[in-house]
Amino acid sequence: MLLARFLPAFFCSLFSAMLLPAVAAAQALAGQVLDLATQAPVVYVSIGVLHRPAGTVADAQGHFTLDVPAAYDQDSLRLALLGYAPLTVRVADFRQQLTQAGGRVLLRATPTPLAEVLVRPGTVTQRVIGNSMVSNTVSGGFKMNRLGSQLAQGLHLRRPATLEEVSFHVAECTYDSLFYRVNVYQVEHDVPTASLLPEPVYVRVRKGETKARFVADLRRFHLTVQGDIAVGLEMVKELGPGELRLSMSVLKGPIYIANQSAADWEKMRGFGLGIDATVTEYR
Questions:
Q1: Nearest CA to 148 among 33, 68, 63, 55?
Q2: Mean pLDDT over residues 17-22, rounded?
Q3: pTM of the predicted model, to two decimals?
């Protein structure tokens, strides 16, 4: 019982500490992200200074505001969204470009084709990997509502498999509704790296619909995965007061944490989030 009471407080304290602002005297960068060809707003673009505690996500109209200290002017800032070519530019140059372009930032669409469906000989088995347990006693989540922050569960597949769906097991939700981006990364050298999804995937759930879990269906992508991957949620929209807490378990980790867009990942061992994946495995 002592362990059950201790773990939630420990996790939240650690995660909160990682999200605390580290710099002051910031200067605001503000603008709107648009599609280069259509001039339409590009929504929920991740924007951040690489390896620095300065990041955000553009809103549903492509607008963004990001406080960046002048001390970061020689660092690189990146704008990224699946389906678009990422834009990396020096902070000082980005300030100047925003002024010259009236706050408009253009991204070039580069659609990623869906993977071909491969027919493999042998045995096909569907199974669930990860943490399926539901616990209201031990839980963890986004303690601070910072745009671009991410939580992900590490998973391992010894054989090639098709990722069918991912589930998130809810311990507590006090929001009126949920809106998150679902991310799937390849993990290399203990760090989530390239996204494996061809386009952004979002989950929208009303408070009364969360029940014990919510699910993201990924079957349309025919996504083949193998080795170490990380599956998680990213905060891309202001949700108002409240919090989402997922079930947690001891030892079934690791958990990966990024405190905002373009931030470095932190790895937490010894705990696992209530995230699982249904896969079709080929033998």
A1: 55
A2: 41
A3: 0.85
